[in-house]
Design brief:
There is one protein chain. The chain contains 19 helices and eleven strands. It has two domains: 189 residues, 3-Layer(aba) Sandwich (D-Maltodextrin-Binding Protein, domain 2); 195 residues, Periplasmic binding protein-like II (D-Maltodextrin-Binding Protein, domain 2, 3-Layer(aba) Sandwich). α3 runs antiparallel to α14, α9 packs across α10 and α9 packs across α18. The chain is an alpha+beta fold. 51% of the residues are buried. Strands 2, 3, 4, 7, 9, 10 and 11 form a seven-stranded mixed sheet that branches.
Amino acid sequence: MTIRFDRRSMLKLGGGALAASALLPRTAFAQSTSINYWHTFTSQSEQAGLDSVMALFKAAHPDISVTPENIPNPEFMAKITAAVVSGSRPNVTMVSSERFRDLLAMGALVDMTDRVASWERRSDFDNSRFDSISLDGKVYGVPGFAFVDWMYYRKDWFDEAGIAVPTTWAELRDAAIKRSDPAKGRYGFGLRGGPGGQNIIINMMEAFGSPVLHADGSIGLDRDKAIAAVDFFAGLLVKDGAAPPSAANDGFRQIIEGFQTGQTAMIYHHTGSYQDIASKLKPGVEFGTMAIPAGPGARVARLAYAYNTITKEEGADAAWEWIKFWGEPDAAVAFLEKTGYFPASTVAAQDQRIIGNPMYAAAADTLAFGIPQPSFPGAAGWAESSVLPNFQRVLIGEATAEQAVDDMIAGLAEAIA
């Protein structure tokens, strides 16, 4: 049984080398211009990547000063909303695709259609890269980089046990059980049930045949298939004992450290954590990368783009110089080398430093079937305030999969009402 809501009624409510880079045409400013940049980078590798891009930008644009400010993901929507209300919004904001509609509805984004259309590097980007930041023929941002979903696995453990790399979720469950030994503090799968885990849960429901956003524009869940997904995913902990007992609270840092320190055999994340993992484990020897397994309904992996957007008219010309600089191949590759985040530019993605690295093969494969995160007004709030806490209730034994999904369905109706 699929419970859907009419999205249309909701829509009525919301309207080369550094030298080469330096030689590109750019706006000359009569005096030094300062802009501030809100982003959600948290890890050391992300900060190192941002520092690299800023150093390249400073060399190419000495007349523009960029002041970055980290906004933690859990606080992002509240802070940007407050900034819009108070008139203290930043010049540039990094925006994830699932937050686009909410920010547009509150008037937080500046139309960038003409700037993007006349950009000298526009042809470096497939049109699809702009789908999740466009509405009604207008473009509101430029993709800075891509999150490509994949998994990490302990290659040495798998080789030792003669286990093949899983290609389906059923195979992953079997491998996770085989690689678990709770008595030794070792678990087959690092389940992210804490902050940031909500999107993985949505992906799992879709993999089991229950997408949230449908081709006809309606929004809703197939209750039975969503229950099967929640039951399976939570079951890695509550039934199989193949995930750490701390899973209900484990966020990014916990799952990464658990994998790095030998607590877990597999984790679900994206290319952005590659450098963090490689700083502790030897690529291709101690760990490997693999594409997200297929579920019984679909193979779901996200190609999520982080967009840089102009969020106020003041200083828009300088803001645009900063935003489009992220499309320069040197900047994109420099950022990838520090973080693992893939370039959004198809030209930059063909750099030998990327295609010549076999560890990125799983991400390259994902480009053939990966899809964007569902985006609609209320999506981010529903995922954070309903999907995640209800799934956590299952993990700690306070709710059944049926109860959790029923509450998710009710929360979805409220989120888009």
